[in-house]
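#struct-pred
JK: can someone run the complex with cobalamin? inputs below
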Amino acid sequence: MYTIKQAAARSGVTVELLRAWERRYRVVHPQRTPAGYRLYDDADVSRLQAVRRLLSEGWSAGNAAAAVREMDADEIGRLVAAPPGRVSGEATIEPEELIVAFVAAARAVDQAGMEEILDQAFAHGSFERVAEGLLMPMLTAIGDAWAAGQLEVGSEHLASQLMQRRLGMAFQAAGRPLPGDRPILVGLPAGARHELGALAFAVAARRAGLPVVFLGPDLPAGDWVAAARGVAARAAVIGVPTDTDAAQAVGVVQALADGMPDLVIALGGAGAGSAAAPGVLRLPSNLGPSVDLLTETLRRRGA
Ligand code: B12
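RT: done, structure tokens with the ligand placed:
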């Protein structure tokens, strides 16, 4: 066992910092001597080294502590032993740790920390992989924490705003449709505001070369028809994020099918099953397969 001075020396942090991390972030839980002095063991020292390591890679203290709190001894050992510069890479920071750290940063309304974690998330591979493996699970974890009363509404709004901006940037970066391309409209029916899944799909579809126009949330059926007619759309993809959105989605499908019989109409999202109709394509929830299915359907129908 080590005194606070020894533990600080072994982990390479100052006594003041050690106390602050203990008090603010509960990184370590020292035992006490009968006289009340703190005593630290090797596991405490490793945890302190792990936090220090993440800080040196640019993490904020709160996020580093939250990530380390969720790690077991093996993970901490691997983190501490990793060569410099490797910590932010795929091999060492597991997606689960980024998700936990993102929720912790959101809870603390730490926007800079959340941005930092999203930067790291985007280093984890292709857009599709990051969106499905990290961004969407982060949102689900935020929703779960909110439902469990562990996170305020402001934190949840902050998280979805940040996600929306990132997805918007990815959408812009994926290239614009060429003039004259008959577009594929993607959007949500009246009343539906959970637009992030549909936006992620729109990004993936654009990246696959489809000329996507994203109409966004909350669009009434008549306006879908006006937009589709106005641009002679090839397809309309309607996001149905929850069962509650299904009735309005059915209205959009009917209005589009009546007004533009040759239009390819597709539904995607967790509520899509409740809005299913004959002749309407039901897209799977994964981004890659849903883009492939739409592309193949457009080709087959010569649309
Ligand atoms: C962010 C959020 C919001 C934001 C949305 C911001 C935005 N710009 O989108 C705001 C604050 C607006 C919001 C409002 C509300 N929300 Co909300 N929200 C969430 C939260 C935290 C994340 C949603 C999200 O983006 N998830 C990530 C998405 C993409 O995952 P997903 O929906 O499962 O989608 C997957 C697939 O289905 C697919 N997909 C989705 N859409 C599409 C579209 C296409 C075309 C394709 C191919 C695929 C696809 O992509 C994903 C792949 O994994 C969830 C929590 C959760 N567990 O999801 C609650 C949640 C969805 N909300 C909920 C509720 C109840 C509401 C409100 C009614 C709250 C209120 N009382 O006001 C309102 C309703 C708003 C409305 N009229 O639509 C409930 C829904 C319960 C239900 N099943 O009906 C949830 C589950 C929270 C909860 N635990 O209770 N919310």
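RT: quick notes.
The mean pLDDT is 91.
Residues 91 and 124 are 9 Å apart (CA to CA).
JK: thanks, will look after standup
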